[in-house]
Amino acid sequence: MKKTITLIVLLLAICSCKDSEMEQKLLVTQQKLVETEQKLLETTNVNLANADLVKIYEEVEKTIVHSTSDKYTIRIDRTHQGRLRYLSWMHPKTPFEKPDVVVYDGEIEETSTWGVSLYKFSSNGFSYIVETVPIKRNSNAKHIFLEILESNTQKFYGKMKNLSRSENL
Length: 169
Hints:
By secondary structure, the chain is of the alpha+beta class.
């Protein structure tokens, strides 16, 4: 009888050891699955962000202004739907990343002197005003200035460096 009880205890110990080993293997496998799932989610998020970025550039019919300063890179585009759009990236971000600011349906105010143009955009209490001033009459080369207002209080004003290809040639 003692031998039978000892044998049963020994078999239970062996089974419980095998169960512990199985549980450990299951935990390791579960951890690997969680890590793989996280990597897939990260990849999906990157792909979604890239898809949004591609959409931003697919909408462009014509780039009107593309310029940079020590703080911002901006673009003003006309979309295929005829909408005027302002995009802004705060440095160190670049136009290869999602913009910090996207505002549609801006207005163009053409002045009667020298071909100066004001591009005005408003969103969430902010106003973004881009002024283009020809360097000389009838010139394609322009000075570009950006003014950012929050509740009519100036937050930024500065001269921008023109990045438009047609004007840098």
